[in-house]
Amino acid sequence: MTGFSTKAIHAGQEPDPRTGSVVPAIYQTSTYKQDGVGGLREGYEYSRSANPTRDALQECLAELEGGTKGFAFASGLAAEDAILRAVLKPGDHVIIPNDAYGGTFRLFDKVHRPWGVEVSLAKVSQADAIRGEIRPNTRLIWIETPTNPLLGIADIEAVAAVAREAGVLLVVDNTFASPYLQNPLTLGANIVVHSTTKYCGGHSDVVGGAVVVADAELAEKIGFHQNAMGAVAGPFDSWLVLRGLKTLAVRMERHSDNAEKVADFLLGRDDVTHVYYPGLDSHPGHDVAARQMRRPGGMISFQVAGGQQRALDVVSATSVWTLGESLGGVESLIEHPAKMTHASVAGTELAVPDDLIRCSVGIEDADDLIADLGEALDRTRR
Predict the structure, then answer these.
(1) How is 154-165 classified by DSSP, letter by letter?
(2) How far apart are CA 382 and CA 312, in angstroms?
(3) 3-class DSSP state for residue 278?
(4) What span, in angstroms and rounded, lies between the C-alpha atoms of 155 and 171?
(5) Beta bridge pairs of residue 195
(6) Gyration radius of the chain over CA positions
(7) Edge-to-edge strands of the sheet including 93-97?
């Protein structure tokens, strides 16, 4: 299997040998009959340790990211936490983006920093800035690309070279791009993490996370912590993400098509002061994104004239766009990061502009999305 969609539909998903079912079964079970003490059937004893539905998802994710092994978790943050506990100890230092998902920053700042992990910030679009933050006790470089919510682009190959030079691990949060648009492991990263709640699931009906690793040593560490900590993806959640992956390629193409049109529309508005979208020639990371991503994706952020209140008014005035947190579903979502997804970074170096609006562009008709957004902007113009 070489093509992305072929892998997404078939990897880990052979027809059931007993019934011929072409859809993997949901093994909604906690335990398994043993044929004598220690006589496990295909290695299954307890579903925290292993479950056939979760195994199917993990195999598919590993194939799509070009990794050695995949692991499915109960949420994206559970996946992130497993990585940090597997590779860090008190006294270690990690570099994180100065533009990142608020929940990720909270995990580092409020959970792992008190545990004894040192944290510093760097601009992911500048490999030299990351190099400048490396210390003797640095163990991990953590990047998002594109970043959340300002759509910054990191040159993964360049950052991977910095990490190798320093002898540290590189983790890439690939949630905004999805495995279809970008494969960080093939560009030199050691670990990829996803919130599968987003594009991998794709229908706003499941919460999950995933880790894919490049080598067997990391796989053993992550696998141990997945089992020991127990924040695993349940069978039905695994099945929902696996179903979502089957259509990931076609959805990401439509997300990108629509986002390009919405971004062009926003550029033409005199009441929009800045548009953040890597598909635009004006974006400082456009060339890097074009090199390492198949398409620029479905996420757009923009700033409006009129300040925070205008931004709040706009996100409350749409009808086709749904005001809500999260992203990556088939429906278009709009939100105010400073008050919603990134409220946890208020007052920190990661604080986002209060006139910023973030859009997760769905797969509806682009004309309807543009008309609705235009009407909201017109009605709130001061």
Answers:
(1) --HHHHHHHHHH
(2) 13
(3) coil
(4) 13
(5) 209
(6) 21
(7) 69-73, 209-213, 191-195, 169-173, 138-144, 93-97, 118-122
Q: Is 10 exposed, middle or buried (0-12, 13-18, 19+ CB in 10 A)?
A: middle
CB 137 within 8 A of CB 93: yes
How far is C-alpha 238 from the chain's CA centre? Answer: 16
| Amino acid letter, 169 | L
DSSP string, 14-65: PPPTTT--SS------SB---SSTT--BTTBSBTTT--HHHHHHHHHHHHHH
Tell me the catalytic residues. Answer: 48, 101, 173, 198
Task: Classify residue 90 by burial, with Cβ atoms within 10 Å: 0-12, 13-18, 19+.
Answer: exposed
Q: CB of 90 within 8 A of CB of 65?
A: no
pTM (2 decimals)? 0.96
> What is the tens place of the pLDDT at every residue in 345-373?
989 888 999 999 999 999 999 999 999 99
342 closest CA partner among 354, 357, 352: 352
Going by C-alpha positions, the residue among 360, 259, 357 that lies closest to residue 314 is 357
Residues 304 and 377 sit within 8 Å (Cβ to Cβ): yes
CA 101 to chain CA centroid, Å, is 10
Helix (H) or strand (E) holding 130: helix 127-132
Enter the tokens of residue 361.
């562009």
CB 171 within 8 A of CB 191: yes
- Round to whole Å and give the CA distance between 309 and 1: 51
Which of 298, 305, 354 lies closest to 326, judged by CA? 298
Residue type (1 letter), 306: G
What one-character DSSP code corresponds to residue 36? S
Question: Which of 193, 102, 109 minimizes the C-alpha distance to 150?
Answer: 102
From the CB of residue 21, how many other CB atoms can be counted at a distance below 10 Å? 10
C-beta of residue 206 within 8 angstroms of C-beta of residue 240: yes
Q: How far apart are CA 134 and CA 144, in angstroms?
A: 18
The pLDDT of residue 222 is 98
Given the structure tokens 């594109």, which residue do they identify? 146
User: Can you tell me which residue has the tokens 């100890």?
Assistant: 89
CA–CA dist 139, 146 (Å, integer): 23
59-105 pLDDT tens trace: 999 999 999 999 999 999 999 999 999 999 999 999 999 999 999 99
